[in-house]
Amino acid sequence: MSGTGQEAGAMPPGAADGPAGRALAARFRRIARLRQVERVLGWDQRVMMPAGAAALRGDQLAELELMRQDILVAPDMADLLDAAEGEAAAAPDPWWQANLREMRRMCRQAGAVPSDLLVAKARAVAAGEMAWRAARAEDRFDAMAGPLRAVIDAVRDWADALAAAQGCSRYDALLDQYDPGAKAATILPLFADLADTIRQVLPEILERQAAAPPAVQPPAVPTARQADAARALAAFLGFDFRHGRLDESLHPFTSGSLGDVRITTRFDAGDPMSGLLAVAHETGHALYEAGLPAAWRDQPAGRARGMILHESQSLLCERQLMRLPGVLDWLAGDLAGRFGAAPAWSAANLRRLASRVIPGLIRVEADEVTYPLHILLRTELEQALLAGDLAVDDLPGAWADRMHDLLGVSVPDDRRGCLQDIHWPSGAFGYFPTYTLGALAAVQLFEAAAGTQKAAGGADADHETILAWMGRNVHGAASSADTDGILQAATGAPLGSAAFKRHIRATYLT
Amino acid sequence: MSGTGQEAGAMPPGAADGPAGRALAARFRRIARLRQVERVLGWDQRVMMPAGAAALRGDQLAELELMRQDILVAPDMADLLDAAEGEAAAAPDPWWQANLREMRRMCRQAGAVPSDLLVAKARAVAAGEMAWRAARAEDRFDAMAGPLRAVIDAVRDWADALAAAQGCSRYDALLDQYDPGAKAATILPLFADLADTIRQVLPEILERQAAAPPAVQPPAVPTARQADAARALAAFLGFDFRHGRLDESLHPFTSGSLGDVRITTRFDAGDPMSGLLAVAHETGHALYEAGLPAAWRDQPAGRARGMILHESQSLLCERQLMRLPGVLDWLAGDLAGRFGAAPAWSAANLRRLASRVIPGLIRVEADEVTYPLHILLRTELEQALLAGDLAVDDLPGAWADRMHDLLGVSVPDDRRGCLQDIHWPSGAFGYFPTYTLGALAAVQLFEAAAGTQKAAGGADADHETILAWMGRNVHGAASSADTDGILQAATGAPLGSAAFKRHIRATYLT
């Protein structure tokens, strides 16, 4: 029963000043609440739900998605949007304008794809994910080739329908799904330039690292005790347990919404830092969600902008903040207090552990220097697959060749090659680039925040000041502008690689 | 995305053979899935949700409820129902007929109450529950009197609107909310007769109990170890952990739906049997939900019939089955194995513990003999409050007088008097009777099931045979008939007190 929390998510008075605007706000509030519910159910599915309930939960989520879709494609929606724009023309409010823009975008996308294409894609993806699990477990790429071909065909048709409605290319339509407005024409040159730089500096980084004292591997710690440390770290970074939870799951993720944000991690008894860094990462995602403007919580303009800025916030916490002296000193003291003094828990060693560079086969284990090369490879190959320039049967070979070329490693089997990620079999083409773009944005934002602190006569960057800056410039901006607009306003420039390159040199070569 | 679990919840082919029938089935499938989602969210709210998310969750649940309401009051619903009845007239299928009947009932109720009355009731209840928590904590009835008056006024208006639409009395409209078709004219004479019997036999029961060897109180057991025993007991009784969970919560409850049923309990280190009996109780609720017909899962006819049969199944497990020699022998062995041999864990002592009769002040701690007197008191007083025959200010006195009269106990304070239950401040008038009616139904059903087993040449009743009988005669019947119809078909008689009276004599006076 409501009447209670209404206020927290209510738009500022006067934002939608007219009957059409108010009607639209009510419809999109319903959509927002359905999404919030879906996110709780998604969390439950991966953390709490009994295994036998998978099909039931699938039906429930499909129904909720359909209900959102039904609202967006209602026949009177176009007229309502026109009328609301008319109402708002007299005294335009920038947030309400952004809200109307996002509403139009959502309606355009919902109306773009015939339902038979959606069903075909959902079916292909369900089969693709199932085939991937088996193929990966048995290291049999051939078992996934057919299902992956079907996924690519379905994604192609779906993306073409989106592209036609938006007047853009197929790949741009896919990029737009994960970060509205992202364009291949901007991204690809950025990636190529970045790869050149990395390949140029990597040998020297490895040389210097070999000559420096090696990091001391931490002792094993029982996972239950790691969980306490993880909770303390999340709280230290600003995670609010009155409005959130931390649980364990197979793969770390963040779900929930502003007011109820839930993060997960996994613990490895033999490698205590991996669980802690994963918690720092998810805490970054959580702080973004928790920092969205409460007044716009239930409207499109109040949503997180996209995967680029989301990933920027998680990487900011995991990489930039976890290297700050203030954070490392606190963590060193906390871990030594919990687990007993040990050389591994010194701040200097924690920094060394967080800065090791090791060219390897597995993307999720990669360091920040080599990670962009993993993404470049995937971006190239997924474009080729979609364009039909690369046959699915030739994927393992192309993967191995390019890994060797970019990272100098030999791919011993497909499990450690093109079977390692679930993204393609689950239809997520266009997603990979956001990882590297997020890493670039993280550094660009950190540099600007730290520069602001310094310019204001402050001392060295501290995590609280940096995060408060992110709250004002990124979290609070929500979807009031596009990604480049938010970055431009916050840092004075659109997304670029200059700050990242400076960071690599400063961190690894000085 | 769906296409996967669809089959499990699909109606038998041909059940709704016509366009109107199929359209209705689709609308009510959506309603069913929303309810399933609400039940998961309700579980989450009480077991997992961070405290600060209460208002947000309230908004989400209110939105989902409104979406269900919107479907039920759609302007074309009456025409669709008429058309579907026409389609079904040629070859009537009893389940589909029941489904249409339930659909009509839901639409009638949804359309009966103007939304301002619903809002007024929701507001009064929110304030009433809050006032109750404070009043109970401080033992200050006066702090709850005003809010309770407001709840009663709101419930009265709401019930009158329902009563007008259904052509019944105000109290019958309330009873009907918890058990469709329940009538005061049937219930009240049953309660009076039962109270006479109980008050007549109670002195002799207490006398015999005083003369018999007392039950040995079990030793304290850490709650974590109790949880393992609780899990084992639930599984022994047939709870399927592949499709369900057992967690801890402040008050035990059952939520979720067929395919994903979730029960909770609370543990008391000093009283290990209380948590175990609560688990047996909730397992009974869970087995009912899990035993509903899968093919009708997403339709009104597939829902549990009402609170009377629901409570009958929980009490059957907690009381009837937990006294069967086969169950007690298993439990005695299991507990001794887990916690070490002790006189308290003998089957005979467990039976004695489960059969103690102690007239007391608190309903939720009452034994099965005195429990109906607690309910009689509440039923009388809630009718008087609703009718205006009892002023709220006079409630504490009336409560104390009647407790003394019925149970011979003196009420020392309102916390142990009329402040002990949340039902009235939360607007649940008409709910209390289902507890006693459920207890009568439990014994009536158990007697019939055991009789069937005996008549078939079987040995003494065993829990698996009894539960299989319940599955066929109660769980599987879902809402295909009303409560009395299901009891008539299962036991040969509508709900009555004869079996219960026989049970009391056989258990406590022979």
From TrEMBL, chains A, B:
Q: Which PROSITE patterns match?
A: PEPTIDASE_M32 (PS52034)
Q: Which UniProt keywords apply?
A: Carboxypeptidase, Hydrolase, Metal-binding, Metalloprotease, Protease
According to the UniProt entry, its GO molecular function terms are: carboxypeptidase activity
Annotated family:
Belongs to the peptidase M32 family.
Q: What does this protein do?
A: Broad specificity carboxypetidase that releases amino acids sequentially from the C-terminus, including neutral, aromatic, polar and basic residues.
What is the catalytic activity of this protein?
Answer: Release of a C-terminal amino acid with broad specificity, except for -Pro
Protein origin, superkingdom: Bacteria
Q: Which Pfam families match?
A: Peptidase_M32 (PF02074)
| Name under which the protein is recorded | Metal-dependent carboxypeptidase
EC number(s) recorded for this UniProt protein = 3.4.17.19
